[in-house]
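Quiz preparation item.
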């Protein structure tokens, strides 16, 4: 019984969500041989009439393609981090000010961690679905719908 629970929890882990997303984007990248064919093609067929999306504002499949690859690269290679970036955002000028901000942050670290973990997991799930949708739509557009599902 414990193994079933562990397996379920592992399936929903952030690490596995990231791997599913990276795998979906890698599959998309290997499938899309001519990215320029994605220009001016809406991602969802239902959105051809109304191209407004609350989650993405990129419009065509090419915009999604570039966005998904960029996010995958950020996950694999990292993004600019560190105190300098935080200082710029917060307008903090000295290390004394920075230590005060860090102390305030430490009070709710667990809540903040869980909030961001849940949010990241939700976003990764949506991005994974978008990468899979883009791959399937590309296959439909170029006419090899039955291959590699």
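Solution:
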């Amino acid at each position: 019984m414990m193994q079933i629970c562990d397996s379920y929890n592992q399936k929903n882990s952030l690490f596995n969500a990231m791997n599913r997303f990276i795998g979906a984007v890698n599959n998309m990248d290997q499938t899309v041989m001519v990215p320029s064919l994605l220009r001016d093609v809406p991602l969802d067929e239902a959105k051809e009439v109304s191209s407004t999306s609350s989650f993405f504002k990129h419009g065509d499949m090419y915009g999604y393609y570039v966005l998904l690859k960029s996010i995958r690269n950020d996950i694999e290679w990292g993004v600019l981090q560190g105190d300098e970036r935080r200082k710029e955002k917060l307008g903090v000028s000295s290390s004394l000010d920075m230590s005060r901000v860090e102390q305030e942050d430490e009070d709710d670290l667990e809540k903040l961690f869980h909030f961001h973990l849940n949010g990241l997991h939700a976003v990764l799930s949506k991005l994974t679905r978008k990468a899979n949708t883009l791959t399937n739509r590309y296959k439909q557009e170029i006419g090899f719908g039955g291959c590699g599902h």
